[in-house]
Description:
- The complex is a heterodimer.
- By secondary structure, chain A is mainly α.
- Chain A has 2 domains: 15-194, SecY subunit domain (Preprotein translocase SecY subunit, Orthogonal Bundle); 245-405, Preprotein translocase SecY subunit, CATH 1.10.3370.
- Chain A has helices at 2-10, 12-31, 41-50, 58-63, 67-70, 79-94, 96-103, 106-137, 160-187, 192-203, 205-215, 222-244, 280-299, 304-312, 319-340, 343-352, 364-399, 409-431; strands at 246-253, 255-258, 261-264, 267-273, 355-356.
- By secondary structure, chain B is mainly α.
- Chain B has helices at residues 2-22, 30-33, 47-75.
- In chain B, helix 1 (2-22) runs antiparallel to helix 3.
- Chain B is elongated, with a radius of gyration of 17 Å.
- The two termini of chain B are 13 Å apart.
Amino acid sequence: MLTAFARAFRTPDLRKKLLFTLGIIVLFRIGSHIPVPGVSFQMVRKCVDAADQGGLFGLVNMFSGGALLQLTIFALGIMPYITASIILQLLTVVIPRLEALKKEGQAGTAKITQYTRYLTIALAILQSTALVATARSGALFSSAGGGECVPSQIVPDQSLFRIVVMVCVMTAGTSTIMWLGELVTDRGIGNGMSVLMFVSVAAGFPSALWNIKQTGTLGGGWVAFFTVIAVGLLMVGLVVFVEQAQRRIPVQYAKRMIGRRAYGGTSTYIPLKVNQAGIIPVIFASSLLYIPALIAQFSGSKSGWALWIRNNFVKGDHPIYMVTYFLLIVFFAFFYVAITFNPEEVADNMKKYGGFIPGIRAGRPTAEYLNYILTRITWPGSLYLGMIALVPMIALVLFDSTNSFPFGGTSILIIVGVGLETVKQIESQLQQRNYEGFLR
Amino acid sequence: MTVAFSIALIIFSALMVLLVLLHKGKGGGLSDLFGGGMSSSLGGSSVVEKNLDRITIVVGSLWFVCIVVLGLLLKN
């Protein structure tokens, strides 16, 4: 394993790519620590210390690596880009023009990517305005008020001009992140956006772990510290196991003569992953669940429904919240698999190139068979996703701790998913030079 | 002084957004984000892209310097 790393660094062009990626990551982290001009940094510090991380902005804050609550120039992180991608992905199902573009192949995909970029900027303007507005009114840290933290003092100069400057800086920061990510995709290793997300999520780990050590009581906190690490490692192992699991459906291709050459005659397989949807259902579900709480907070009303939402949907340890979250994840897992994998299309393609699944007739029976297998295999996949996503909340209830569990399901899924993908890409580069890779 | 830097910052921010949007998007899409196919785009960047990169880097550093200076000015 380590020798493979050494080899990767000894290969000149791979070393260049790795160093480039590291450089971009450093830039990204530096930007995540520089406050937007006009924000009182000392006040933000005090308020972040006082605020509990598990609140309403917890998930979004995690995605930005803690930059959101600190109001830095990269405060929005890659969240606008993710949201834009999700929206466009959903729209391709609805809008015929986008669907046609998707079927066009590479040129069409490039156009969709361009739309995603425009939408990202639009969302960035929207979100930065919302963020600055909440920070200005003091609502961002409303729960942390009292003591040294004065929420209304976060933005000392509340003139309109200053606010406009802040919104501009945050929007430009988001576009810079987008560019950095694309640079990594282009010249570095792995998919840039997911590498940056990986970095943001991983950046929160050390402080969260240390927090657990500080608040623990048994043996100076070390017992809790090591328990959490052990559970985290166990979960990583489990996640890797399920992520790699796939069902291979054998496909036999008929031999064909075209001119004087013989084509086909090979037998391959269609890999159907147990967790075909990846972590997208979790992201969907948490963004959807975040909306009612947001509405309740912005409306500020004291009527019955707002109170009910505040009691049941803001805190993650409430049973109603957990059940809704779980059901939403299961639903979105099926939904997303249905969007991305179309059995009829696959069956048609196979028929076109003379392929068939042994024992099953080509055409409609194949599509039905694939659909059956896919539905059956997605059940354990979706249940697993829901369970993993619920682990931090269950841990919260069990340990009755006030701070969030650092190895939350979402973060572990992201870390493992992105890590595996990136390592696979490095490996394929290594194999071009006949080296043994990391994974066996 | 602060007003001048603020206006410069607004201009640089707008420029930055424009320049980034002028780039050709690399990769992208959700399936790519969370482990899809390995679609590594081959082929080097054109001269236009290279020049665009240079301009973006220059504007980006100016934008960054503006942020730091304005932050220090507002602190005092």
